[in-house]
Structures are given as C-alpha cells and as structure tokens.
Amino acid sequence: MNRSPAAPLPRVSGGAARSAHGPNLGDRAWSGLLGLLGGAVLLIVGVVVLALVHVARPALKAGAGTFVSSSDWDPVSGSFGALPFIYGTVVTSVVAILVAVPISVGLALFLQEMGPRKLRPVVSFGIETLAAIPSVIYGLWGLFVLVPALRDHLEPFLGRTLGFLPVFRGAPIGLGYLAAGLILAVMILPTIASVTTEVLKTVPASLKEGALALGATRWEAIRMAILPYSRAGILGATLLGLGRALGETMAVTMVIGNSPTISPSLFAAGYSLPAVIANEFAEATGDVHTGALAGLALVLFGVSLILNSAARLLVRMVASGPSRAVAS
Amino acid sequence: MRSLLLRRIRNHLMTALCGLGVLLALAPLASLLWLVVSRGLPGLSLSFFTALPTPVGEPGGGVGNAVVGTGMLVSLACLLGLPLGVGAGVFLAERGDGLFGRTVRFTAEVFSGVPSIVVGIVAYGLVVVPMHHFSALAGALALALLMVPTLSRSTEELVRLVPGSLREASLALGVPQWKTSLRIVLRTARGGIVTAALLAVARAAGETAPLLFTTLNNQYWNLRPDQPTASLTVQIFNYAISPYEDWHQKAWSAALVLLLVVGGLNLLARIAMRNSLGSHR
Q1: Residue A159's CATH number
Q2: Range of A290's domain?
Q3: How far apart are CA A277 and CA B204, in angstroms?
Q4: If you write DSSP's letter for every residue of A201-262 in order, what string do you get?
Q5: Number of domains present in the structure of chain A
Q6: Contact partners, residue A137, CB within 8 Å, separation at least 6
Q7: Is the pLDDT of residue A6 over 70?
Q8: Closest Cα to residue A192, out of A229, A132, A226, A241?
C-alpha cells in the first residue's frame, strides 16, 4: 500500500475558482453533504420510532391497559397480558448480570492490574472472538451443551444443596430461566469486560502508586484506589450489558423453554419479550396480535434507549473528569 | 490493623479469584469452538454447499440456497448501509465537534444498543406491510438499519487516526477543505474504513432475529429480492429447534460454515487494519 498522497495537490491552482469572500462552492457542497449524512442517523431513529408505533397501533387502540397488568397471553381469544414475558426478561437479565459482572470485572482487573502483561493480547483476542460469534450459534451451543449439562449436573446439584431456596426448587428440566440467564451471561461478558478494561485504563497511575507506596498490597490498592475511582464506569459497563441482555433474542428463544407462565423457580421454563416476538410475529393471528407484539418491541426499544443513554453518560463521566468520578 | 500475613493471603486469594474469572470467561469460548468444529466437520462436503435442503431422513442435501441467500441479503444491505454508515462516520470525524455532531454521535451510540429484533419489526412495517408479502428486501433493510450506527462510530474512530499534520500540510498548500477531506484524509484512512466495513458485514451476516419475519425462509433457490429467501442463520435456527437428529447434524455443519464466514471476515478486517497502519507509520 505505497501510494503517494501528494499526487492530487498540483491540481488545486488550476481547479476551483476561489472567491475572496467566504468558503468556496466545493467546501459548502461538501459540508452540506456531510451534514445530510449525519442527519440521516437522526432520520433513521425517527423512522424507527414512527414505524414501530404504526405497527403497534391496532393493539394500542384496543387497549394497552391490560398489557402490563395481566399475565394471560392468549392471542386466539384476544387477551394480551405481557407479564410472563416481562418477568422472564427481568429474571434472565438479572441472572446474567449476577454471573457476568463479577467474572468480567475480575477478568479486567486481572488483565489490567495483576496478571502478566503477555496475557493481555491473548485474552483480549478471546474476548473479541466471543463478541463476534453470532447469537444463533450461542443458541445452538446452549441447546445441545449447556441445557443437558444443567439438567444432568448443575440443577440437581443446586437442588440438593440450596434447595431450601424457592429459586432452586423444582424438576431439573434444563430448558428454562437458568439456562437463558447463563447463556446471556456468556454473551454480555465481552461487552462488560471490554468497557471495564477501558475504564480501568483511565485511572491515573498516581492513585495506585500512592496506595502501593503507603504499603498497601496489590489487592488493597485495587479496592481502595482503583475501584472507587472507576465505580461509575463499571456501573455504566453493567448497564450496557443489561441493555444487551434484555434485547438478546435467538439464544434465549432456543433455551428458555417458551412457556408463557410465571414461576419462582429458576429451573422452570419461561418466556421473554424478544422470544415471544421471534416465535409469534411471522404467524400472528391478525392486526391486534401483530400490534401487541410490536407494542412489546416498543417497550424493549424504550427500555434499551434509557439503559444505553445512562450507560454512555456514566462511562463518559469517568473518562472525562477525575474530580466528578471520585466524588460520586 | 490486621497482620501482614493475613493481608498477603487475602491479596493472593483475590488474585486467584480474578484469574479464575479469566478462565471462566474463556471456557465457554473453547467449548463452543471445539463443538462447532468437531460436530460440524463430519457433515461438511462439497454438496453441502451446493445442494438444496432435503426433507427429514433423506440423505444428502445441503444449505446451498441459504449460503446464496445470506450473500444476497448482506450485499443488498451493504448497498444502503455502507454509504450511510461510512458517510455518517466521516461527518462525525470531520464536522462532528459542534452541537449537531455531538447529538448525532450520542444518537448513534445509543441506537447501536437497540435490540435487533426491534429493527426487524420496523422493516416489517416499512416493507412487508406495503408489499403484502415477505421479501429479501425487507431483511436487507433491517440489516442496513442495524449497520449504520455501529459503522458510523467505528469509521469515525478510524478516520480520526489520520494525523492532523497531513491535513494541515494540505490546507497550507491552498487545497480547499473538501478536497483535503476527500483526497488526503479519506485516502489515508481507506484501510481503516475497509476494516470498519468488513466488521459491519460480518455482524450483518450473523444476524438472525430481524430476518425471522422479514425474509422468512425458502426451501428453494431464490435470487429475486422481492421474494422470501433462505439464510444461513435462520436455517441453523430451524434445524436446531427441530426434533430430528439428522437436522441437528446439519445445524452444526451450517454453524461451522457461518463461523468460517464470520471468522474469515474478521480476519480480513484485521489484515486491512494492519496494512493501513503500516502504510503511514
């Protein structure tokens, strides 16, 4: 790739006529074109919202009140209570966060502060690969590897040891909230780990060095200097992961069991918002059904916008101002 | 004050726990890659790439139409998604420091986290409803909409890597801004833009959810954009959730094909990135 970047320069003098006042025509056209392209991003978001509302309208007209208050989902008889899906989405996302956050923060700390430097490129390549694998392949792996392992080993074990808790009771069938939560944990791990790593990089070395110089062990320096500084950023990373977990469709659809019920046990089969859209949308029984599913999508869209905005603001806060981040 | 020994033990314990995090994070990756390769490989043959799917129990058969379908979907998505995404990225890098630019950047960042299935419904409303049937075009629109925000952000990052001195040298020679942008900045950033585009294509090829109710599926060859079309990802999904052992095998093989496609695109992106950095550093 050895090209001479100087080639186009001589054409300038003979080319554009330059006016003495203001930028020339080419500059104005170029600025205008770029502005249009940037505006297209805003336009796309506008179109997305309008199209969603449009598809959802038949259901919104028919009454959205029962949407979040009823748990009875029966499209054929026209009842659209979305509680089981909301419950399933929340439960699986919480499981995913509880599993993924400690692992990713531990991983980021180990790479950035504790372990050998040589390990960094290897592990970050692994994390990038995890992030690049299509979700349907995670679903395939979940269905044929994770679900049998849960059914035959982890769930019976949890039932024996922690069975006094209602969340670990019930028949170990494999498919269910726990399987979906664990596969989500694997899928959101790269997001949380890479953002946390970026956040840790912004911690001033002087903070850690100060703690070490006062005689702190490595872990004490992390706990007393590094973690307080990066807390807001790690929270941002967690919210980004949560946003991904809420909207993840394929892998969850394949392992959650697809049963529109609410059950306190993590072993039980459930359903989630994206999963019901994926399963029912193509064969929806009429406009109201389609509209109800689009309404669920609208809920997902809104929640993910809020989560992502909050996450970006938190991460940016850590990156831009040390004083504010320390104060929080 | 705790004794030094206790503090040291605690330090080692926490280091070990964090190291465990690395192992726990990479174990699923190793398991997944190993299983896709070991279970997918036996089903691969030349005919797997060229033949149409067969009904359950019938030997042979492949995913040829799905490979072609994915290729068509992604190409169509690129027609709309690449110019818009790269263009918006160039805007952000070149004119993105004002209020308008910051708004666009924030919107793109936030929008890149929107679940893909939501965008599928948008494409359904925009294309499937007016046309009254499912089509490759609808799926391609969904993929294109998904491409734009992420691609614009990664393009911006890579265009901003171009040293400011190059731009200043050009402007100092009297080259107008637009020509400097096109001929100096973008030309230098070309390798980076190719990288960003390849990564966007790889992501698009792996999408499933927005295709389920836009392109649907097709048992036969199809090259018409206005018809339902098979795709690798939807085919993997259908095979995986079927109750037949025979189809499960095909799901693993198709997953291996998809993984090779996505991995190959990522590898190409890395090569493009290395070349672009090597050429002007």
Answers
A1: 1.10.3720.10
A2: 60-325
A3: 20
A4: HTS-HHHHHHHHHTT--HHHHIIIIIHHHHHHHHHHHHHHHHHHHHH--HHHHHHS------
A5: 1
A6: B32, B36, B206, B236, B255, B258, B259
A7: no
A8: A241
Do the domain assignments include residue A256?
A: yes
Q: Which domains does chain B have, with CATH numbers?
A: 63-280 (1.10.3720.10)
Q: In this structure, is residue A3 part of a structural domain? A: no
* Residue pLDDT, tens place only, B9-44: 999 999 999 999 999 999 999 999 999 999 999 989
Which residue in the set B29, B113, B213 is minimally distant from A130, CB to CB? Answer: B29
- B152 contacts in chain A (CB < 8 Å): 41
What's the DSSP call for residue B43? G
- Residue-wise pLDDT for B198-253, tens only, equals 999 999 999 999 999 999 899 899 999 999 999 999 999 999 999 999 899 999 99
Higher pLDDT, A167 or A78: A167
How far off is chain B from A305, nearest CA to CA, in Å?
Answer: 6
Quick one: DSSP state of residue A79? E
Pairing status of strand A73-74 against strand A79-80: antiparallel
Contact status, residue A158 vs residue A70, Cβ threshold 8 Å: no
Residue bearing tokens 């038949």: A58
Query: Tokens 């020679």 label which residue?
Result: B173
Residues of chain A neighbouring B94 (CB-CB closer than 8 A)? 34
> Above 90 in pLDDT, residue A108?
yes
Query: Nearest residue of B to residue A112 by CA position?
Result: B18
In-domain check, residue A176:
yes
Q: Can you give the pTM of this predicted structure?
A: 0.91
pLDDT of residue A72: 83
What is the rounded average pLDDT of the residues A171-194? 95
A318 — pLDDT class (breaks 50, 70, 90) = confident
Closest by Cα among A136, A238, A247, A138 to A194: A238
Q: What is the pLDDT of residue A9?
A: 41
Residues B206, A135: C-beta atoms closer than 8 Å: yes
Whether pLDDT at A34 is above 90: yes
Partner-chain residue, chosen from A45, A140, A247, that has the shortest CB–CB distance to B255: A140
- Interface predicted TM-score (ipTM) of this complex, two decimals: 0.93
Going by C-alpha positions, the residue among A137, A87, A109, A59 that lies closest to residue A261 is: A87
| Distance (Å, whole) CA B259 – CA A176 | 26
| Residue A136 within a domain | yes
Nearest by CB to residue A16, choosing from B112, B114, B176, is B176
Among the listed residues A151, A234, A229, A241, the one whose alpha carbon sits nearest the alpha carbon of residue A198: A234
Which DSSP letter does residue B161 get? T
Neighbours of A127 (CB within 10 A): 24
How many Å separate Cα A299 from the centre of its chain?
15
Contact A172, A156 (CB under 8 A): yes
Give me the phi and psi of A78, to 5 degrees please.
80, 20
Among the listed residues A114, A88, A77, A89, the one whose alpha carbon sits nearest the alpha carbon of residue A200: A114
Q: What is the mean pLDDT of chain B?
A: 92
